[in-house]
């Protein structure tokens, strides 16, 4: 008889513990209200479509750019933009933290875009061929490298002269 | 019934033996007619990007093209040579042209460090080796890498006869001095190589190395267009390719 009480008590405790998440909180955490800061007037596709399918769109863009060399997307109004997450998407939705991460962390999604792609420093580059923006820093780096090479060439020449004697 | 079976066995043995003799003859004669040339006839239509490297003009000690390329494409610089990543580099003549046909070369040429990069072969062995299709040949002849699909198996590195491919043994980000915003980096476990600046070509620009060279060593252009500068140079000068005996048909030509 005692055993029966123990068993049922144990069962009750187990059921309580197992069903805890269901009766404790029925309300989900609030969906993040993204304060979206945008520069442009229109998105590359309707907003509803983008909310649900932006990952599909990005995959299509990726494949068509890398594999077919088709680099431009035609906007709903007929204008052209580069198929680029860093340039076009983040060029308009300036803050990566707010635009990407708030939702992704809520949904516990971890895309690995940024393992390779470089997070734009000043909210994306909207220019179609944004090769100029990094030019100054590159120039400095090049000058340093060239100076180093000059030294290398001189030392090599010296070495050859010494050898020829 | 038994007799029938015996007849059947006899006949089939005869047929098999005959077939064996015939196939022996066929294989004997067909090998006799095999062609020795590795060059395939090509219909010169569309675009095949190529490059001529005029080593007579290349200055010893200058690595401007290498620096520009590596800055443009976020190529990391590791201290340990085992981790080295290279898209374009200089190597000894003997290593670049190991074929026996180049025997009595001048000492000056032999001492010169030769500029090397991916040859963007017309018949690329790396593309055949890649199990995921991460390395593929574009319609314009560029052997391109889709880093998204690379699983890091390094079959392509074993297949490439020119050592043009490098593997990211480490996370490359910390080894890049100043990350160029316009081009992605790679991640650990991915192979990379020269892409003939396909991202610059899309904007109508020349490859970074060609633009950077002060001596005009490098000439880039469409090999299938007879009016281009590159074809004129190829017509006027004797050129050599790396390891032509392998039949990879490189798109990079050298004037020594």
Number of H/I helices of chain B: 9
Oligomerization status of the protein chains:
heterodimer
N- and C-termini, Cα separation of chain B: 79 Å
Largest sheet of chain B: 3 strands, mixed
Principal-axis shape of chain B equals: globular
Structure description:
The complex is a heterodimer of chains A (165) and B (256). Chain A is mainly alpha-helical and 165 residues long. Chain A has 2 domains: 47-130, no CATH class; 134-165. Chain A is built from 5 helices and 2 strands, in the order H-H-E-E-H-H-H. Chain A has helices at 2-24, 47-68, 85-92, 96-107, 135-164; strands spanning 72-74, 80-82. The longest helix of chain A is centred in the last third of the chain and has 30 residues, at 135-164. Chain A is flat. Residues 125-141 of chain A have low confidence and may be disordered. Chain B has 2 domains: 1-34; 49-255, 2-Layer Sandwich (Alpha-Beta Plaits). The longest helix of chain B is centred in the N-terminal third of the chain and has 31 residues, at 2-32. The relative contact order of chain B is 0.21. Chain A binds chain B through residues 62, 66-67, 69, 71, 86, 112, 115-118, 120-121, 125, 129-131, 133-134, 137-138, 141-142, 145-146, 149, 152-153, 156-157, and chain B through 60-64, 67-68, 71-72, 74, 136, 138, 140, 144, 146-148, 177-187, 198, 200, 202-203, 205.
Pick out its properties.
heterodimer, A: 165 residues, mainly alpha, 2 domains, 2 strands, flat, B: 256 residues, alpha+beta, Alpha-Beta Plaits, 3-stranded mixed β-sheet, two-stranded antiparallel ribbon, 9 helices, 30% helix, globular
């Amino acid at each position: 008889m005692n055993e029966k009480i123990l068993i049922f008590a144990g069962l009750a405790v187990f059921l309580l513990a197992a069903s805890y998440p269901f009766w404790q909180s029925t309300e989900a955490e609030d969906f993040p209200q993204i304060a979206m800061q945008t520069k442009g007037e229109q998105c590359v596709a309707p907003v509803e479509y983008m909310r649900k399918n932006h990952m599909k769109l990005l995959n299509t863009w990726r494949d068509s750019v890398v594999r077919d060399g088709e680099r431009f997307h035609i906007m709903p109004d007929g204008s052209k933009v580069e198929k680029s997450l860093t340039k076009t998407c983040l060029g308009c939705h300036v803050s990566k933290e707010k635009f990407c991460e708030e939702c992704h962390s809520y949904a516990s999604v971890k895309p690995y875009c940024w393992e390779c792609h470089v997070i734009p420093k000043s909210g994306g580059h909207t220019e179609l061929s944004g090769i100029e923006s990094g030019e100054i820093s590159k120039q400095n780096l090049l000058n340093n490298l060239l100076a180093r090479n000059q030294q290398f060439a001189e030392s090599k020449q010296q070495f050859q002269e010494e050898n020829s004697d | 019934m038994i007799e029938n079976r015996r007849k059947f066995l006899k006949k089939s043995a005869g047929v098999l033996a005959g077939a064996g003799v015939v196939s022996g003859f066929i294989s004997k004669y067909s090998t006799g007619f095999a062609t020795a040339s590795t060059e395939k006839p090509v219909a010169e239509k569309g675009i095949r990007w190529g490059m001529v490297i005029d080593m007579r003009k290349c200055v010893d000690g200058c690595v401007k093209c290498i620096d520009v390329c590596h800055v443009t494409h976020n190529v990391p610089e590791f201290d340990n040579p085992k981790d080295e990543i290279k898209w374009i580099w200089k190597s000894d003549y003997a290593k670049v042209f190991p074929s026996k046909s180049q025997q009595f070369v001048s000492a000056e040429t032999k001492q010169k460090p030769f500029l090397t990069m991916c040859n963007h072969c017309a018949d690329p062995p790396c593309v055949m080796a890649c199990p995921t299709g991460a390395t593929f040949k574009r319609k314009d002849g560029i052997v391109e890498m889709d880093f998204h699909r690379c699983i890091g198996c390094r079959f392509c590195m074993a297949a490439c006869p020119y050592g043009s491919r490098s593997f990211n043994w480490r996370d490359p980000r910390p080894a890049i001095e100043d990350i160029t915003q316009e081009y992605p980096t790679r991640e650990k476990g991915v192979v990379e190589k020269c892409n003939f600046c396909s991202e610059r070509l899309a904007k109508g620009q020349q490859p970074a190395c060609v633009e950077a060279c002060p001596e005009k060593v490098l000439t880039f252009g469409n090999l299938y267009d007879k009016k281009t500068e590159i074809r004129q140079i190829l017509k006027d000068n004797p050129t050599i390719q790396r390891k032509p005996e392998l039949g990879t048909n490189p798109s990079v030509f050298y004037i020594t």
